[in-house]
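cache lookup: miss for this entity combination. No prior model stored, computing from scratch. Input as submitted by user K.M.:
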Amino acid sequence: MVASRAVGSLSRFTRSRMLRCPGYICRNFTKSSALLTRTHINYGVKGDVAVIRINSPNSKVNTLGQELHSEFIEVMNEVWSSNQIRSAVLISSKPGCFIAGADLNMLTACTTPQEVTQISQEAQKMFEKVEKSTKPIVAAINGSCLGGGLELAISCQYRIATKDKKTVLGSPEVLLGILPGAGGTQRLPKMVGVPAAFDMMLTGRGIRADRAKKMGLVDQLVEPLGPGIKPPEERTIEYLEEVAITFAKGLADKKISPKRDKGLVEKLTSYAMSIPFVRQQIYKKVEEKVRKQTKGLYPAPLKIIDVVKTGIEQGSDAGYLSESQKFGELAMTKESKALMGLYRGQTLCKKNKFGAPQKEVKQLAILGAGLMGAGIAQVSVDKGLQTVLKDATLAALGRGQQQVFKGLNDKVKKKALTSFERDAFFSNLTGQLDYQGFEKADMVIEAVFEDLSLKHKVLKEVEAVIPDHCVFASNTSALPINEIAAISKRPEKVIGMHYFSPVDKMQLLEIITTPKTSKDTTASAVEVGLKQGKVIIVVKDGPGFYTTRCLAPMMSEVIRILQEGVGPKKLDSLTTSFGFPVGAATLVDEVGVDVANHVAENLGKAFGERFAGGSLEVLKQMISKGFLGRKSGKGFYIYQEGVKNKNLNSDIHSILAGLKMPSQPDVSSDEDIQYRLVTRFVNEAVLCLQEGVLATPTEGDIGAVFGLGFPPCLGGPFRFVDLYGAQKTVDRLRKYEAAYGRQFTPCQLLMDHASSPNKKFYQ
Amino acid sequence: MTSLLTYTFKNLPSTSQWALRFSMRPLSCSSQLRVAAAVQTKSKQTLAKPNIRNIVVVDGVRTPFLLSGTSYKDLMPHDLARAALSGLLHRTSVPKDVVDYIILGTVIQEVKTSNVAREAALGAGFSDKTPAHTVTMACISSNQAMTTAVSLIASGQCDVVVAGGVELMSDVPIRHSRKMRKMMLDLSKAKTLGQRLSLISKFRLNFLSPELPAVAEFSTNETMGHSADRLAAAFAISRLEQDEYALRSHSLARKAQDEGLLSDVVPFKVPGKDTVTQDNGIRPSSLEQMAKLKPAFIKPYGTVTAANSSFLTDGASAVLILAEEKALAMGYKPKAYLRDFMYVSQDPKDQLLLGPTYATPKVLEKAGLTMNDIDAFEFHEAFSGQILANLKAMDSDWFAQNYMGRKAKVGSPPLEKFNIWGGSLSLGHPFGATGCRLVMAAANRLQKEGGQYGLVAACAAGGQGHAMIVEAYPK
């Protein structure tokens, strides 16, 4: 529960910056054609229009790599030199993907900035030729058009996109710690205006087709088709191609102008941008905002601003040069390695490595309509799962149902759903007070209060009514699953599913297996989680599992630091400036002081001295005064409805003063305080891997970043050790061990890594 | 205030465009037959079933179908419906007190006459002891009226039922916005001046923006024309094919009108205006003229235009349906039997207008017939693209297997038996009244040309569809 509550607050901050690379999910759809002579790109000529089709072999997505690049040059040269061809259409044969971006492996294989700059310059050169093509080229976009894909599309003379949910245009490079390196920083501002371009490149957000049309990013929309003479996806691509061909012809015949009529607002904006003073103000403002949000921890956004500025103020030659150089520099930074690692990890954690379950889960039942239960219901009903939400009282149930409705309705307000879809999804939810219909349930997830005897009670009740194949999942953040399963008649069907609050915002799901949990049960749980849109780590059972267990020693250190006289505000700023999305003291408030205390006691019993540090008495005194954190209005801070700037709770001073510990000056510098927190976290994480709680470092990193708000720029605890250095980490721990004892003793696996410098968690 | 209102109305879409969007809603169909077809010897017996009453259509009439905004524009829907009912009384001379029940279909309801069947029947001189109700099922509303009548008779509840339908698109209920309505309702409940003033102070200019009747599918928010354009694209139907089909419909309708085949039309003396004697939407044009029109829905490259869509129409229809023995006892010579019928529904987004494709094989199977047994096809033409898509879908094994769960295609109706007296594209399509026109066209064609079976089919908003077998009454 600690972790889950913690994350509530984290999410607010992390969401915008976290990796949410959209659109990489494509159907696998490869067509073999006898006509294929190249592997990635082919073209045919229809009348006087060349139709260039991109279809990378053995992949669900097209990525811009070396091979595709050179084939593209070949094809374009043929198109340009042919007298028969007057225009061209560029289209992907893969449904759901135009080009998903550059090939990351190509970038990570480079060892010097010069190599990366070279790649960027080659792409720039090619795209410039496309831009200057006298034969109009129409980009026909169906599915994800991201990164390099978007840069290619905006080099073309015209863009037509399908108005499909899968069609997303964006520049997510910033999320990988790099920048659009193939002319994007120069072309995008010209195409959509400087403010919109900054927004796209600095947030990395994906833009849906209809909005792209309004922004001027695409020129025409094509509606996706239903079934007709062919399956819908196939026919839609064909139709897109047909429409694109007519526009290509129109452009070649000069019947259609590639120039777009700009609206009044757009004209005014572009006029304003022509005034140097206004431009300077905009740069300044954007830069300030970025500095404030990134705390200087992420170099990419600032470089993006810089490159755009160079292009506008000093001309495009300087802009392109700056773009390629900064691209090279960024690709070599630790931050980009960390972020790319997270991206890869996220992709891995979106797969079900346990295979397909024997029986698909269609009927889900959730016990407890509290914040968690209703949250789980919300992410289930909108994926088409028939969901029963059960609680003991009508009032509690009603509150939960309202939460689900509100969650869906908020999406309607944001136009992500229609009101009709909302109603249809909401109909998937059945609220009830009894166990009616549980005999049809394929999975039951309990989200009742964290109390072992209560969990035992519902487990018994549920097992009396559910069918044999039904999985029983417990949503708990700290109670060991084997203890819950101890009274089960069928322990192989019992598993832990640890969601993070708020469930609809937090991407992580921690699945906990006991030695008795069957593989099929795990496969079912992972499949349900994936359906719910979660990033999933699967860990072994144990006190605190993985996430809560890593957080607990850090929290213990937080208390000690406070007792040593560092104020909550100072501590918050130290942690956020290290990259945590939420300050450490605020985190305790968000988690709930009582919950933190409960977990600390439990885990303290299980792990003993290693989890010691601050005195639990601090929390106990806070609880006795009713300072439970945000939920009670007071914790370390005072929370009031509608008041944005929170003030310190002055009563805390007396509590902390009464429990003051002497601070040790040689380990109490600002930097030391930061590292005391992080190294305890990291050490515990590595110990989890050593003990086999974690199966892979990747899952450890994903869990820490997506569940606990570990600084994304560090890439997670394991990436941190790799990039910061195992030896340096151990040195830090030893230093603190000297001051505080065994809580900081580095674990064996960490020492192994320190003693052999070639050993890395990520090879 | 006045200027405000004018401003709002200026912002309404231009009439023609608006009208066109409306025209997307229903669809129906009718049948045809040829002398050659009738000569074939029928292996099939009559579709009479043991222990089920035979149900017959004695006759049916309709007002001339007019482009909305023309001669009927000052009428109310019940006026039109009354004209059809009076016409039926006159044509059949049915004694008023024999009629057990009256059912009319309508789509856009006039709020003052929400049970338009009752208001029209009272005015038409039917007995005030004859109950009447109104049904709505988008473009197959009058089909629903007729099949409801069939069920009432088959179950022995009634012997004589009048079914029909009406639509008056010249006037539609345009409402105040919800906010304005709420304020007005609250005002009427306010007791003190203070309460009233405080309510009025909440008034905002945007309260005055009116609410038009939905032109889009409620579930998908897509207009029917838009869906038709996508459907045509999904079935790879070109603009030219669509224009050609529309031209065919208009040419055949003109021919039928000139030859006096549209005998179900009864003249209507419109109060204050001349007597209307014939449909006014039949306008055979040329492919060149039609090619000049811009796409109406998917711009700028779509294929559905004003010329290849059905237009907004005013009109009403009515048929007299009886149990066979009752009809014979009353001395009638019925025109046709109403046999098996079928309602279907499917995805309202991507298959909105494919109702006939789904309904046709089912109703044929139910009746034990094949496509070859049908002499007169009468399909509702909502859009050229929609008709052609349905024809292609019915002729596709792939579609039948993957979307309809059938082993094989049902086959496409031969065009020489298909809507040969024109269709909704040319005759017009008053949503609530088209179904009866289709049935009477099928019955009259069978009578005229000597075939045995007619097949009526239609699509409707909401992704629904209908088909019915009409069997000629032996001479």
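stored under new cache key. Chain B is about 35% helix and 15% strand.
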